[in-house]
Amino acid sequence: MKDLRDFLEKAEKAGALLRVARETDPLTEMGVLFGETEHPLLFERVRGYPDWQVCGELVTTRASQALALHVDAAQVVAELARRMQQGTVPGRVVATGPVKERVLTGLDVDLRALPVVVHSQEDGGPYIGSGMCVTKDPDTGIQNVAMLRLQIQDRARTGTAFAPRHSWMHYRKYEARGEPMPMAVVIGHHPLLDVATNSSVPYGVDEFQVAGALLGEPVEMVPCETVDLLVPAHAEIVIEGVVPPGVREEEGPFGEFQCYYLTRKRQCPVFEVRAVTMRRDALYRHVQATPSTVEHQALVSLPMEAHLWQRIRDVDGFIDLKDIHVPPWGACFLVLIKFTPHLEEQAKSVLLAALSSSYVHPKIAIALDDDIDLTDPRDVFWAVATRVDPSRDLIQVPHARIHPLDPSGRLVTAPGAGHQRVGGKLGIDATKPPTCRPKDREEFERVRPMGYGRIALQEVLGALAGLGGSR
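Structure (tokenized):
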């Protein structure tokens, strides 16, 4: 069974895992250290939490995403899109699993014993940011999984910030009945479960079944101890409890994924913990929310890229699509599309498709040609600077619905609509002329230095280092 440990072992063998042997404080130090790397990171000694290890930044880069999917980096988006189109793979219910090696109930439950990391300087306290929160529709019994932030309030209580999506719909149903909503929080598994949790599938689809399709095998599931929910048997930690109806307490502030304290303090539902189950030597899996080069953004952007790949490649019947990148540094509001334009104005069709999808994140979309490296901001903005005529290559969409946590938009409210924002959207055509105009296209052939693609400075420096060592 593929799980967190399986992935960390693969990362170690690939030379991608960074180990920190120095004792590190999760309350004052880990937040910034997680934000300074894009590589899988494992803290081996955690100050104040003996016998614990903390890991994170597992799938921030294309290289680590490729490791999780077991493909080449250039194939990540297309392969993820293919697997997501295959449908779901139901989980396999088993009697027990590693996550049941320790079962804590009653006064033995203490969330403060977990090495929960403080993400940002003004956070209201330690937040679980990696929790895959499992709930189910009381009418259909179908489970939903969402990654929600949980603020540790005391020994067995957290604040719970629901996004206005599927988990919130479940809670409103329970609350209307005057019943507590069962919830289980899963921490630590193969990172493709994290990707599935953030995949924005339709209501009524169990994200753990999506994870089965991504893994290529069913996720083994076990019943919870105190609530009627199924959770992955090979998880590191599961926190069980209920969200009572009609209860609201102060939650926040919290540094959001766009790197602002946008929501500050507010009244939110609470999660009352009844049990914690875990592996005997459990690892704590952390997902850092800020700054903007870290994993929370990547976990949202990766399934968004796969969705947009599927959507854009069929625009106008066929698009010669090469790659899509939603860079974490763009707060998931920026979409970069690399393709070869063959016909006039194909870029406009591509841009409009990117700006209108099941995701509300995309606000700025840039169409780029096949000679641009989407992961290099210098290359991207060189293309914008040299290939864009602002008088004809921009598409502006005014007064559109945008992400509710995009601070640039105008906050609006309406009965039952909750926290909503409206603002503009922008498409930028930074492609060369299409291939149907070969002479015009040739004018934009970029200059390459002599020897490009045949030799690299790092190779020369390595050779000189080896020569120096032999003397």
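The longest helix spans residues 295-312. The chain has two domains: 4-285, 313-442.
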